[in-house]
Fold this protein.
Amino acid sequence: MRIAAHAIIDRLLTVGVCTATDLDDLPPAESGSRTYVGTAFLDLRRAGVIRTDGPPVPTTVGGRHSPFLFRWRLVSDAAAALAYKAAFPIPTEADVDDAEPTNEDARRDGTPGRADVLRQNEGATNHVD
C-alpha cells in the first residue's frame, strides 16, 4: 500500500494534481484488488498531506466503482510530503520477510494507525476531518 502513497506524492510533486486514473499502471495487490490505491488517498488525506481540489470530476473510464473521480493536491509544501515518505518508506523484501503481521490502517480499537503516528510525530492533533 505504501507504494501507492509514494506514487501519489511523486505525482503531486511533479504535476501538482493527481486522480486515481493517474495510478492505473500500479500493479494490483496479491488479492487482485486495486482498492489499496483508494486507501492510500484516504491515508494521505487523514495525515493532512493532501486535499481534494474542487468537486468530483465525472469520468467514463471503465472499471471504476464510481463514475466520479476526485482531483487531489498537496495541502502543505514539498518538505512535508517528503517527510511523510521518509516516515513511511516502501518496505524491502527483507523487511517484509522479518516483519510481524500488523495492520497499518486506522484501527477500530483506538490504537494509533499510520496517520495518527505521523500527526503525533509532527505535534498535530489526531482530529480527522
About this structure: The chain has one domain: 2-95. The first helix runs from residue 2 to 14. The helical segments are 2-14, 35-46, 78-87, 93-98, 114-122.
